[in-house]
Amino acid sequence: MGFAAVFVFWKGKDMELFISDLDGTLLDGNAEVTDFTRDTINQLTERGMLFTVATARSLASAGKILSGLELKVPVILMNGVLIYDMQKKEYIKINGLKRELSGLVIDLARKFMLQPFMYSVSDNQLSTRYERLTSPAMEHFYKERRDKYYKSFTQVSDFSQHLDNVIYFTFIAKKEKLAPLYEALKDNSELSITYYYDVYDHELWYLEVFSSAASKEHGVRFLRDKFGLDSITAFGDNTNDIPMFRAADKSVAVKNACKEVLECCDEVTGTNEENGVAEYLLKTFERN
After folding, report:
1. Contact of 191 with 211, CB cutoff 8 Å
2. How confident is the model at residue 11, as a pLDDT?
């Protein structure tokens, strides 16, 4: 799953941004920021580096994972669907889905016997709904986020009764089970789809559906414009990070990245278990 951290610092008159995926890239195998990475980021922040996140996660889990870090600029959440100001505690950009598009996703999910988690935002609050937990993967997703990150879920009898303010769908299953839904939705110009393996269990895949107005790429471009950034370096490990690479001036893969990411990056750094991103940032600052 793709999550990213952003670093901005002055180089003369230029502002340079570093943006790193979290799971499989900045985080270790336990989905945590190591002490070394946390201390490195905080020390560099004190030296003028601004830090935020761009993630496929919602605020509930991303906020807890990064609680030991200073977040001074808005964070990109849920693949760019939401941009959230941590200091003001409000969403400053929301890319929602039309009712008919949400209805289409629900109808196709039923046709292919798939159950999603459905997200919506109203009055600055994110809601996560589900009808049934039909697989061990869904149960694990639900329990981990409820117990570890204190995320709230609401069970409903019929998604069709809750189509207002929908922003996102998450499906979790084996690739072959998700494939028919992906094929049915991939050419819809009003939708963005991320379709990638779970870095913690490669037998499982995620299929995430949201507005075509949102993506990691669009989120990074939003930050570039908002902060007047001159150059951007992106770090990643999975295929859902490739759109972020397109918005960057330089792309860096961690050594454990998938083949597609390794083939399209400009440089390779150490693995996520070796604090590869933090080490790269330290070397970058030592050169300047």
Report:
1. yes
2. 52
